[in-house]
Design a protein that fits this description.
heterodimer; A: alpha/beta; Rossmann fold; Syntaxin Binding Protein 1, Chain A, domain 2; 4 domains; five-stranded parallel β-sheet; globular; B: alpha+beta; Lipocalin; four-stranded antiparallel β-sheet; about 45% helix; elongated; protein transport (chain A); transport (chain A); Sec1-like_dom2 (chain A); Sec1-like_sf (chain A)
């Protein structure tokens, strides 16, 4: 079921199993039949840990979504609330419990806080007078969730906002705790590198926690050689750019949440003979995307322009495999063919799915092929996509970043989605190390006049996080950074990449360049650039108990855990996977993050929208 | 015994703890006059006096020891007082209110897997049980039919995870559990018995012995299912004490001043051991300690291996090996003969094992050495013998010999030591304050730090902080020096101890060494060092902890101080702000006010303005925002806010006049709506008043006119002045409405580099583009295209390709 987690260099299934074990233990604590009331936000992350079948085995008979008023009727002994420690949720729970008491059959109430119980919430329950009604109040420590064979995520949407805007370091505390759990399972990580304020903070907390646990020395042979902590605000540029890998584009266009994507159903209609196309499915098609699917694992990280070729190659292989049946003469051969059938059929349906997805994306992007069907709409989607990309690339290469950009102006005039505008403006600001006051004010005024005054707060937030800022020093250091770190590669090879820049068709993500340089030749070679980027950079060593020092075999790769504080994009992950696969890199990467993001979801998390009420 | 008791053990309440535990004496417990109070004395098992003080509380019925070496004194009124080994009072609890009235007649202290328990029987013949005194839950057992006063004898049993009382009333036996009282009869008990006068349960609660008035001793399982044996002891006077002395084989009783009869039910006989004067028997795991005023003896069945080795003319392999070694030391060749004999039976391994095991059971150090040497000698002739047991026994013996020293006084047997484990032994040493010895043992046995040395240090430090004669400085330094950062020693625990003794300053000093903030904070709060608690909480990074302190502070301090405190802790402040944002908007305002944070205050007003239902109040809140923005020197925001207010007023006016429903729309949307309503003049006014960029206004108007298909207006508009957005958009909007005719009007105005695009647009299938391409102008067009405009080039190329095809 979760076998793909154990394929990688590091068996992340251990982590998942540990989490499942804890869940089972809690469920068994509440004897008898149960109903779970879910904080809706948690269902996604939990899905990565345990399916309904596990819950069912432990007598979970009903599941509800947490909402005010009375709980739905269910003939169960226990009601368990799975919630994040949020005060507003406590009020809802209290309401639930109150309306319950009026009914006759008494049921036991329990709360499971994810990822940590909070004094504040319990206090609130006490104030509401329901704290006593709970038999069990427990916490379920779910910090790092195994997302894929080489990917861990905390699925904490607001982490960036909390850390950089609100100065609330709760998620960093959870990060540190999560890393401690990870070390308990996979051994102490001997080397820690980091860049950025938050990275420093997390490293400090980790070292502190290690001191606290002193005495119970971890006797596990370390799996990770290095931990690299990176602040998202060290590299604000990358998430703003449009990702151009297959997976990245799916995320940009349709949004991947907790490993699932919802797609428009039309292209997936099963066209069977004799059936008319009348009853097209209207429900969006939901697909799980992870490396368990062989084909997806193969193409997810490719530049989208290389996906078509890969798909057609795959199609040929599959049809060739099906053709083999004609060659099968003896009974033995036929038997062998039949035994492979399920696998082949799965491969074929996977191919069909991805061909459909690729078509959907191509309709929108259509980078190289002129699409005749979209000809009659004046500004076709693909054209908009392409213009947008052109502007992005201009910014990244430093063309006219200090002037008001006409494309952005036009987009505002056309009332394109605000987030798109914000992404572009922020990008220009980042690439110019801040905008001239006049330019900045112009953009801001345009936005306020077009999209409404209520976005004042959003703009303010963007300024606070440094995504948008007035130029303070006359020197723009972005070109220096770009040149030193080779962030722009003119001749990015999309089909057979030889550099990470293929993931953005030319732009090499800054965060990944830092990672790459750290592995070889080391950060000392780029001291100057590191000083230009915000926050301190540092190196810490954790003493290993004697006897646990790895004896490395010749040619054995080192393993680095790269932790992105504040989110990471799929394109960055693809770039790291590319580095892992490079023959001479000598380094394998495991990626961890607070949340998988893209420019849109990221900017959205920073927006503030006062609920406007018309008088 | 090194004690010196004036009157022996006569007229004393005595309690001695098993596992070589301490002994407590209460002399003349029934004396009640204030002038002569009974004396409570505590001795180690070797008779070293640990404490002695006059008993000032009420009359004591029973003494007993807990598993943690604490002394329990059960008083007549049901109060149980707890003292430590050194006679300092720790705490007390009561066995129930009703006991005060009816008085405790008899009491027993018992040990079970749950800890130490107390059972009492009251004057009203009711039993009350507490299974674990550390987690006190009193259980009053049901009434026993026909029982008056105390039963003739009783005992506490632990069976099937339940604690029960077995009692005899005359010849009748009852088992009392939580809910019921069941009459039972032991199988095979002779019928002429008229009373059971004594009973005793074995150490493991598995076996039971009953002594009858006829002098018979019945032994059987504690379940009363099986009988083991019945012996006629010929003893008529009831024994004073009856104790099991080995698991299965025997039971022993004390009754006479000068001899100690031991019944051996297995061989149905009784043998007498002479003892001097008065004595007390203490049941042990593998024997009985007989304590008298002059000596202490351990009565024990000789372990089988020792019997085999030391039996006269024994031919057991161990005995032969011992002999062989003895000859070897004499340099006699007989050694080889003995060895050969063992080897021929291939029993050498067994011989070594026997010697090692026997050494463990011996008390005499010389004998131990002899046996171990023999074992080591035998080991030389074995190739694949694991040395583990040998090494372990040597180590354990060294430890045992050390603790058996009179100075320490823990006369443990090897099996007792095995049963109690090293950890418990360390605890016992610690209770007796033998810290250096305990640490030595931990190091010698290589006990993991947090189970061994650290625990000892923790106790030591807790004890150290109570030394009143040392200054805070000195103690803190001493503690820090010894404890250092030993793993697993909790400084907060030590500090809590110091605080308990009223040494707050010392506690704070000690807390500084604590690594875990989670531990520091609660204690600091308890000591009212809230500022320090806050900074520690912040240091830990645990935001819930910070919230805990902040909420505490909020309730403790007045608002001004509270805010000032927060101000010094930016992390706490921002957390509190978050809290306020969600919960207490007004407090948020006060916070910003106090900090003179005008920018945030202004933002606060902006948010607040959207909550206002009425326009006037909304405007006034916005005005406050403007003021604050001005104070924050944020001109842009101030201006934007003023604009918004102006817009709102304008919208209200028009809504009132024309019912346009504009309020709350953005400027752009307002103009759009106005244009849609045909209110061109008003839109124009907004465009000028708000200095809307020409480009955007042109786009807006263009689209609006096209939307309404007012083509003439559009043309007029296009000619009103030179278009700031060029004329391509004109072509495009026309085409969107499928009006090729109108579109063509503007194509001519499009500059050459956009012409292809213009033609491509309306051309649908690129017809116009084709035309341009055919005209051969594409070369020129291409040249003028900016190099980055790849798409355009692309399209053009394709257009050319199709052109050539045609």
């Amino acid at each position: 079921m979760a076998a793909h987690l154990s394929y990688g260099r590091v068996n992340l299934n251990i982590l998942r199993e540990a989490a499942r074990k804890e869940l089972r233990e809690f469920l068994d604590k509440c004897a008898g039949s149960k109903a779970i009331v879910w904080d809706e936000y948690l269902t996604g992350p939990f899905g990565l840990i345990a399916q309904y079948s596990l819950l069912k085995e432990h007598e979970v008979e009903k599941m509800f979504t947490l909402k005010g008023g009375r709980l739905p009727a269910a003939d169960v002994k226990n009601i368990i609330f799975f919630v994040r420690p949020r005060l507003e949720l406590m009020d809802i729970i209290a309401e639930n419990v109150f309306s319950e008491d009026k009914m006759h059959s008494p049921r036991d109430f329990h709360i499971l806080f994810v990822p940590r119980r909070s004094m504040l919430c319990e206090q609130r329950l006490k104030e509401q007078g329901v704290l006593g009604s709970f038999t069990n109040i427990d916490e379920y420590i779910l910090d790092l969730i195994p997302y894929d064979g080489d990917l861990l995520s905390m699925e904490s949407e607001s982490a960036f906002r909390e850390c950089y805007l609100e100065n609330d370091q709760t998620s960093l505390y959870h990060t540190a705790k999560g890393l401690m759990t990870l070390q308990a399972l996979y051994g102490t990580i001997p080397q820690i590198y980091g860049k950025g304020e938050c990275a420093r903070h997390v490293a400090n907390m980790m070292l502190r926690m290690k001191r606290e646990f002193a005495g119970s020395q971890n006797q596990i042979l370390p799996v990770f050689d290095t931990l690299l902590l990176l602040d998202r605000n060290v590299d604000l540029l990358t998430p703003l750019a449009t990702q151009l890998t297959y997976e990245g584009l799916i995320d940009e266009i349709y949004g991947i949440t907790n490993g699932y994507v919802k797609l428009p159903p039309e292209k997936f209609a099963q066209k069977k003979q004799g059936e008319t196309g009348k009853d097209l499915p209207t429900e969006p098609k939901k697909l799980q995307l992870n490396s368990a699917e062989e084909l997806y694992a193969e193409i997810r990280d490719k530049n989208f322009n290389a996906v078509g070729a890969a798909l057609s190659k795959k199609a040929k292989i599959i049809s060739a495999a099906f053709e083999e049946r004609h060659n099968a003469k003896t009974v033995g051969e036929i038997k062998q063919f039949v035994s492979q059938l399920p696998h082949m059929q799965a491969a074929r349906s996977s191919l069909a799915n991805h061909t459909s997805i690729a078509e959907l994306i191509k309709d929108i992007t259509s980078l190289l092929y002129y699409n005749k069907t979209s000809c009659n709409s004046l500004v076709s989607a693909s054209e908009a996509f392409f213009d947008n990309l052109t502007v992005e690339q201009e910014f990244m290469t430093g063309v006219d970043t200090d002037k008001v950009n006409t494309y952005i102006e036009d987009c505002i005039a056309q009332k394109d989605p605000l987030i798109k505008i914000l992404r572009l403006v922020c990008m220009q600001s980042v690439c110019n190390n801040g905008l001239k006051q006049k330019v900045l004010d112009y953009y801001k005024r345009e936005i306020l006049q077009t999209y409404g005054y209520e976005h004042m707060l959003t703009l303010n937030n963007l300024e606070k996080t440094g995504l948008l800022k007035p130029q303070t020093s006359s020197r723009n250091n972005y070109p220096t950074i770009r040149k030193t770190l080779k962030l722009w590669m003119e001749d990015a090879n999309e089909q057979n990449p030889n550099d990470i820049s293929y993931v953005y068709s030319g732009y090499a993500p800054l965060s990944i360049r830092l990672t790459q340089v750290l592995a070889r030749p080391g950060w000392r070679s780029i001291e100057e650039v590191l000083k230009m980027l915000p926050g301190p950079h540092f190196e810490e060593r954790q003493q290993l108990p004697a006897g646990l020092h790895k004896k490395r075999q010749q040619g054995e790769n080192r393993t680095t855990l790269v932790f992105f504080l504040g989110g990471v994009t799929y394109a960055e992950i693809a770039a790291l996977r590319f580095l892992s696969q490079m023959e001479d890199s000598g380094m394998e990467y495991i990626i961890a993050t607070t949340k998988l993001i893209n420019g849109t979801s990221w900017i959205k998390s920073l927006m503030d929208r006062p609920e406007s009420q018309s008088p | 015994m090194c004690w010196n008791l004036r009157d022996g053990l006569r007229d004393c309440l005595v309690a001695a703890a098993p596992y070589g535990g301490p002994i407590a004496l209460l002399r003349e417990p029934h004396r009640r006059s204030p002038s002569s109070r009974p004396q409570l004395e505590i001795y180690s098992a070797s008779g070293n006096s640990l404490a002695s003080f006059p008993w000032k509380s009420g009359p004591v019925v029973q003494l007993g020891w807990t598993v943690n070496d604490e002394l329990l004194c059960i008083q007549e009124d049901g109060t149980v007082l707890i003292y430590d080994l050194f006679g300092s009072f720790k705490r007390h609890f009561s066995m129930g209110q009703e006991v005060v009235q009816s008085q405790v007649l008899e009491a027993k202290v018992f040990h079970s897997p749950y800890g130490t328990g107390v059972a009492i029987v009251t004057g009203s013949s009711r039993f009350t049980l507490a299974t674990n005194i550390d987690d006190l839950k009193l259980r009053r057992l049901p009434e026993v039919p026909g029982l008056q006063g105390a039963p003739s004898c009783w005992a506490v049993l632990t069976q099937d995870r339940q604690t029960k009382v077995l009692l005899a009333n005359g010849a009748d036996l009852f088992i009392l559990d939580n809910t019921s009282c069941t009459a039972v009869s032991p199988p095979g008990l002779s019928p002429q018995v008229s009373s059971i006068v004594h009973m005793s349960v074995s150490f493991s609660y598995k076996y039971l012995a009953l002594f009858t008035d006829t002098g018979h001793l019945w032994t059987g399982s504690a379940h009363l299912q099986d009988k083991l044996s019945e012996v006629d002891t010929k003893i008529r006077n009831p024994p004073k004490q009856m104790v099991w002395y080995a698991c299965l084989s025997a039971c022993l009783s004390v009754c006479l001043p000068v001899c100690l009869p031991v019944c051996l039910p297995a061989c149905l006989s009784v043998c007498l051991f002479p003892v001097e004067e008065q004595c007390v028997c203490v049941g042990e795991l593998d024997g009985v300690r007989v304590v008298s005023s002059s000596r202490q003896e351990l009565l024990q069945e000789v372990p089988l291996v020792c019997q085999e080795i030391f039996k006269i003319a024994s031919m057991a392999p161990g005995a032969l090996l011992l002999e062989a070694h003895r000859e070897y030391e004499k340099c006699s060749q007989k050694a080889d003969e003995y060895l050969r004999e063992i080897k021929e039976q291939s029993m050498l391994g067994e011989a070594v094992r026997q010697c090692v095991e026997a050494a463990g059971h011996e008390y005499d150090i010389q004998t131990q050495k002899t046996l171990l040497r023999a074992a080591s000698f035998g080991k030389c002739f074995l190739t694949d013998f694991s040395p583990d047991s040998f090494v372990a026994t040597c180590r354990e013996l060294r430890v045992l010999n050390a603790v058996r020293e009179a100075g320490v006084g823990l006369p443990l047997t090897h099996s007792q030591f095995k049963q109690m484990t090293v950890q418990v032994l360390i605890d016992r040493l610690v209770y007796r304050q033998f810290y250096p010895l305990a640490i030595e043992i931990c190091r010698y046995l290589k006990t993991p730090d947090y189970q061994g040395v650290s625990r000892v240090l923790k106790h030591w430090a807790s004890c150290k902080v109570q030394q009143k004669d040392l200054s805070d400085e000195a103690i803190a330094r001493a503690v820090c020096l010894k404890v250092g950062d030993s793993a697993g020693v909790s400084y907060s625990h030590i500090a809590a101890k110091a605080y308990e003794c009223g040494r707050t300053e010392l506690a704070i000093k000690l807390l500084d060494y604590e690594a875990r903030s989670g531990e520091q904070v609660p204690l600091l709060l308890k000591m009212k060092r809230s500022q320090l608690a806050l900074s520690k909480a912040v240091e830990s990074g645990d935001t819930d902890l910070v919230y805990t302190v902040v909420t505490y502070l909020k309730n403790e301090m007045n608002r001004g101080d509270f805010f000032m405190t927060l101000r010094n802790q930016p992390v706490a402040l921002s957390l509190y702000r978050q809290f306020c944002k969600l919960q207490e908007q007004d407090t948020l305002k006060d916070l910003y006010n106090q900090d003179d944070d005008h920018q945030e205050l202004a933002n606060y007003y902006v948010t607040a303005s959207y909550r206002e239902k009425r326009l006037e109040s909304r405007l006034s809140v916005l005005q406050s925002a403007v003021d604050e923005y001005n104070k924050a020197k944020n001109e842009f925001a101030a201006k934007a806010t003023e604009d918004e207010m102006r817009l709102l007023r304008f919208q209200r006016k028009l809504d009132d006049e024309k019912g346009a429903g504009l309020l709350g729309l953005s400027l752009q949307a307002t103009m759009e709506a106005l244009l849609a309503l045909g209110l061109h003049k008003q839109a124009e006014q907004l465009y000028r008043d708000f200095r809307v960029p020409d480009k955007r206004y042109w786009w807006l108007k263009l689209k609006s006119l096209a939307e309404k298909e007012e083509w003439e207006e559009l043309e007029k508009f296009s000619k009103s002045k030179k278009s700031p957005i060029g004329y391509l958009p004109f072509v495009e909007v026309c085409m969107k409405r499928h009006n090729k005719h109108e579109a063509k009007k503007y194509v001519s105005k499009v500059p050459p580099e956009q012409k292809v695009k213009a033609h491509l647009g309306p051309g649908g299938c690129g017809r116009c583009g084709d035309r341009e391409a055919e005209r051969g102008r594409d070369g020129a067009v291409l040249a003028r295209c900016s190099a980055s405009d790849r798409l355009l080039i692309d399209k053009l190329n394709r257009a050319r390709a199709t052109a050539t095809k045609k």
